[in-house]
Design a protein that fits this description.
Layout lengths: L2 E8 L13 E7 L9 H17 L6 E6 L2 E9 L2 E8 L4 H18 L2 H6 L8 H8 L3 H11 L9 E4 H4 L6 H7 L5 H13 L7
Parallel strand pairs: 3-6
Antiparallel strand pairs: 1-2, 1-5, 3-4, 4-5
């Protein structure tokens, strides 16, 4: 049971013509030592892509778990300017994952004002992300934390979707990968190669 990635995202809303600027990853932390050294940078980029994609497609006030192959992205959309996403394996407990994203969201909002979030042009200094990711690696420890810190918000229903079900009609993951500003040309090539050989790394 592992948490691979935690991200605070400022999702960008779609324009009238369906165009949008890329979402901004305001803070992130990752633990990718279970992936090969060769693939880690591409996996990290795909984690960012996955986090941004599901954050953009989560309504304000909504909490959901989005499954893609062997991974689940748990997301909470606090308001128009802020969403938090944790990417875990399928065995990681949902309640612990949702507590992690909720706790990260509350800590981030306590640290930064809405104006700072809205005006940020790059990532903001948020060391709590690394600490929270470390703290929640062990679900047994996370469960102990839950017993003490569970709040009413954390008992709300979580929607469950697949990545395919999250995409809008006529959208395909391949097309999103090609257009993504979160992915380098090397990672896009890695995605296509991995898909052909059926050796998935994250959102493939």
């Amino acid at each position: 049971m592992k948490v691979f990635f935690l991200a605070v995202v400022r999702p960008q809303e779609r324009g009238a013509a369906g165009e949008q600027a890329p979402s901004l990853i305001l803070a992130e932390a990752s633990k990718l030592d279970s992936f090969s050294l060769f693939s880690r940078s591409s996996v990290q980029e795909f984690m960012r892509f996955f986090a941004a994609t599901i954050a953009e497609r989560t309504a304000v006030g909504q909490r959901q778990g989005v499954t893609e192959n062997d991974y689940v992205g748990y997301v909470v959309r606090r308001h128009g300017q802020l969403a938090v996403v944790a990417v875990t394996d399928k065995d990681y407990p949902e309640l612990a994952a949702m507590e992690l994203v909720g706790k990260a969201a509350r800590a981030f909002e306590a640290r930064f004002e809405a104006r700072q979030i809205a005006q940020a042009a790059a990532a903001l200094p948020f060391e709590d992300a690394d600490e929270l990711l470390r703290q929640y690696q062990d679900p047994r420890q996370a469960n102990a934390i839950l017993k003490v810190q569970r709040e009413l918000e954390d008992t709300k229903a979580v929607l469950h979707k697949t990545m395919e079900g999250l995409l809008e009609r006529e959208e395909r993951l391949d097309m999103l990968v090609d257009k993504s500003a979160h992915l380098s040309s090397q990672s896009k090539a890695f995605y296509k190669t991995a898909k052909k050989t059926n050796s998935c790394c994250i959102v493939m």
